[in-house]
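Posting this for the archive.
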Amino acid sequence: MPSLKTRHFPTILLILLIGACVSAPTSRTTYVDDDYSDSNYGNFLVIGVAGSYNNRAEFERQVVSGLRGEGVDATAFYNLAGNEPISRDGVLEAVRANGFDAVLITRILGQQRDIGVEEGSTGAKASTIGGRPINFFRYDYEELNEPDSINFTMTVTLTTELFSAGDEKMIWAIETSSSDAENAGILIETTAESIVKKLARDGLVGS
């Protein structure tokens, strides 16, 4: 079974946006595995990949709260691992120990009209070793980097991927775009809510 060579996911999830007003996030489905079209899940492990631990923890809390509001169980990864780096082995251990049937991972996909970007160190070289290029369970990371520091951005696009924990297959993915917000808290709350609603609409949430 493929393994991850490093313990970090070098990227940011959510950033502090300065100025402008809040608009509702928009989501679109980017991948569906038809073999799982009749599947739904009742015990989620929620992971937010972020350079900021506080933003990651808050995002995971918001998604967990939304899923519980839909009547299913959900646990934030930071509650199990604290501020430890995210690793494949750590996720698999959490799945085995807690009986999760699904893993939900959100990470940043891109930004538009960035202003005031301070670049981090050299980006990680990610090579796929099977499966889709964005598959969490199929990465080998050769080197680490530090997340960029972004002072202002117009739009942040996130990708959220749902994995069947039993066979480690990605079965569903969406992209969520969020426009300018006055602070990270608002952006986190509205984006998490949008992701949970999309999961429910697509019939993936159920005990």
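The radius of gyration is 16 Å. The chain has four helices and ten strands.
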